[in-house]
């Protein structure tokens, strides 16, 4: 079982939720570009779905392909969207972030084991080859 966590409206009225998203937009943008996930932004993630599968990549395919067979594997807990960079997957109580390339583990201090943005990931790979 894989749990999907996305930014979630926690019982705010639409106008307040949109204002909050405006306030968090810079943090989300920086996180997607490779910065550390802020505790303020992390607090707004919530469980939106459970996927009946065992692999992170399979969960990504199921949430994005959206076939009838895939829908049978998803239990929706809240409104959600297809998986995108910055969403969080939980497997065996370990959180992973959907990255441009792969699924880096989300550490307890909200850093990731490798950057989730493409440019930062490529720079890190380049530094390993130096």
Overall average residue pLDDT:
82
Q: Number of folding domains?
A: 1
Kindly report the oligomeric state of this protein.
single chain
What are the secondary-structure elements, in order, as H or E? EHHEHHEEEH
- Give start-end ranges of low-pLDDT stretches: none
Shape: globular
Beta fraction of the residues? 15-25%
Give me the side-by-side strand order of the main sheet.
3-2-1-4-5
The biggest beta sheet is recorded as:
5 strands, antiparallel
Discrete helix count = 5
How far is the first residue's CA from the last residue's CA? Answer: 39 Å
Helix proportion of residues, in percent?
Answer: 25-40%
Overall SS class: alpha+beta
Strand element count: 5
Rg over CA atoms, rounded to whole Å, is 15 Å
SSE topology sketch:
Layout: E1 2-7, H1 14-32, H2 39-42, E2 45-51, H3 56-65, H4 68-71, E3 74-76, E4 88-91, E5 94-97, H5 118-128
Antiparallel strand pairs: 1-2, 1-4, 2-3, 4-5
What would your notes on this structure say?
- The protein has 5 helices and 5 strands, in the order βααβααβββα.
- Strands 3-2-1-4-5 form a 5-stranded antiparallel β-sheet, covered by helices on one side.
- A hairpin with a 2-residue loop joins strand 4 (88-91) and strand 5 (94-97).
- It has helices spanning 14-32, 39-42, 56-65, 68-71, 118-128, and strands spanning 2-7, 45-51, 74-76, 88-91, 94-97.
- The longest helix has 19 residues, at 14-32.
- The chain is globular.
- The protein has one domain (2-128).
- It is an alpha+beta fold and 130 residues long.
């Amino acid at each position: 079982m894989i749990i999907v966590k996305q930014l979630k409206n926690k019982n705010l009225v639409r106008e307040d939720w949109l204002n909050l998203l405006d306030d968090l937009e810079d943090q989300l943008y920086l996180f997607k570009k490779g910065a550390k996930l802020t505790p303020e932004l992390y607090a707004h993630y919530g469980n939106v779905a459970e996927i009946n599968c065992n692999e992170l990549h399979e969960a990504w395919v199921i949430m994005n392909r959206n076939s009838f067979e895939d829908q049978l594997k998803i239990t929706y807990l809240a409104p959600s969207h297809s998986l995108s960079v910055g969403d969080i997957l939980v497997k065996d109580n370990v959180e992973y972030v959907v990255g441009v390339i792969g699924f880096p583990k989300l550490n307890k201090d909200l850093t990731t084991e490798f950057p989730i943005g493409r440019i930062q990931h490529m720079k890190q790979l380049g530094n390993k080859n130096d």
